[in-house]
Structures are given as C-alpha cells and as structure tokens.
UniProtKB/TrEMBL annotation:
One Pfam family from the record: CRCB
Predominant location: membrane
UniProt binding sites for Na(+): G66, S69
Subcellular localization(s) per the UniProt record: Cell membrane
Protein name: Fluoride-specific ion channel FluC
Reaction(s) catalysed (UniProt annotation): fluoride(in) = fluoride(out)
Length: 119
C-alpha cells in the first residue's frame, strides 16, 4: 500500500511540475516547483508528527514532494548560469530557492499543526 501511495503522489507531483513548465517560463517554473515541494515536505512532516496516518507520509513526502521538486533541473539551470557567467542571477536564484524552501518547509510544519487542531 505504501508503494501505491508513493506512486500516486509522484504522479500528481510530476503532473503539477509538467503543468508548471507549460505555464511558467524557466527557471521560474523550477523555482515554483521546488518551493511547493518544500512546503509539501513540511506539511508531511508536521502531519506525521501529530496524526497516526501511516499512508500520509509516503504520499506527501516521498510521492508528491519528490515528484514535484526537481534538484536535477535546478543544477542544470545553475550550470547554464555559470556557463553564461550570470553570477548575480545565480546567487539570487540559489539564495531564494534554498532560503524560501527552508522557510516554507518550517512553516509547513506549523501550518500542519494548525490544520490538524483546527486553529
């Protein structure tokens, strides 16, 4: 059953990421996908700490967040910025991706508690 949850979450996450590539130009689509993946991971961690729902973690953390986020595309885009010597753009992109990703993962744990407790 865990495998099915991971597959379903991965399908949804991958489909969302594909949709972002059709709606948002690169590298912004990668940024949005990674940020939302961080949020999904934070929510998954928060919910698994509070609720005894064993299939939620494989679905949200492994499937959805894993299928949505894309570190390989981030690395490719950063490599292209290095080749073009776009140092300022590279620094901003990396800073905001990692910084906002950490903040949203942290906030996701807090929002999960608020959702769980109905606050």
């Amino acid at each position: 059953m865990n495998l099915l949850c991971v597959l379903l979450g991965g399908f949804i996450g991958g489909s969302l990421r594909y949709g972002f590539t059709r709606l948002i130009p690169a590298p912004y689509c990668t940024f949005v996908a990674n940020i939302l993946g961080s949020l999904a991971l934070g929510l998954a961690y928060g919910f698994t700490q509070l609720a005894d729902v064993p299939l939620l973690h494989p679905f949200l953390a492994l499937g959805l967040a894993g299928g949505l986020s894309t570190w390989s595309t981030l690395a490719k885009e950063l490599g292209e910025m290095i080749k073009r010597k776009q140092w300022w753009r590279l620094c901003k992109y990396l800073f905001w991706t990692i910084g906002l990703g950490i903040v949203l993962a942290w906030r996701g744990t807090i929002w999960a508690a608020r959702i769980y407790h109905g606050v």
